[in-house]
Amino acid sequence: MEGGGNSKGTGLGGLFGAGGVGYSHADLAGVPLTGMSPLSPYLNLDPKYLVQDTDEFILPTGANKTRGRFELAFFTIGGCCMTGAAFGALNGLRLGLKETQNMVWSKPRNVQILNMVTRQGALWANTLGSLALLYSAFGVIIEKTRGAEDDLNTIAAGTLTGMLYKSTGGVRGIARGGIAGLTLTGLYALYNNWEHMKGSIARQSL
Q: In 10 A of CB 140, how many CB atoms?
């Protein structure tokens, strides 16, 4: 039975010249592991060291793990400008083809369609970019004032953005803009919290 005793010193540890002693399942069966993770019989490695329970990146002291509104403002403004330009270009192409449908394909018609695409693209990019700029500015100001980041900031920023954007239309324009901003941001906040609301309703029904 000496071969069985020598098997404890063989295995991966013996192959790579490691001095550690290998243990079989039978040897580990009677060893109390209270407060410890079970050792792997193949690598003699505690599995708890393989579990990454800390952050992957080191953040500066006081920094948030998620980007704030100020960091997201650049992405929001740029994304809205690009979206507006793409939508405006498609809308300009549609309008250009519609207005020149009685014309034969020629250089004047191509130039007119291209002008319409350029004009509509710039118009929509400017519109959505301005809205994104106002929304981001209000969001940052409200966040810094309240000292908190939640859906209330989103709804308040959207409402104020709509009111200011339509302020040239008088009291009715301000009211319509505020209602539009409140509705859009309210739906956005509802979408973000839909899963949480479903879970809360399910727990209450139990």
A: 18
Q: Which residues lie closer than 8 Å to 119 by C-beta, 6 or more apart?
A: 92
The position carrying tokens 């739906």 is 187
pTM listed for this prediction: 0.62
Q: Which two tokens stand for residue 195?
A: 């899963």
Report the interhelical angle of 107-146 vs 69-99 (nearest 10°).
160
Q: Is 133 helix (H, G, I), strand (E, B) or coil?
A: helix
Specify whether the CB–CB gap between 27 and 8 falls below 8 A: yes
pLDDT at 72 over 70: yes
- pLDDT over 90 at 3, yes or no: no
Give the model confidence (pLDDT) of 93-115 as tens digits: 999 999 888 888 888 889 999 99
Rounded Cα distance between 203 and 174, Å, is: 41
DSSP label at 206?
-
For the chain, give the mean pLDDT: 77
22, 31, 32 from 116: Cα distances, Å: 78, 81, 80
13 to 17, 31, 35: CA distances (angstroms): 6, 21, 25
Rounded CA separation 183/131 (Å) = 15
- CA gyration radius, the chain: 32
135-148 confidence digits (pLDDT tens) = 999 999 998 888 88
What is the distance between the terminal CA atoms of the chain, rounded to a whole angstrom? 61
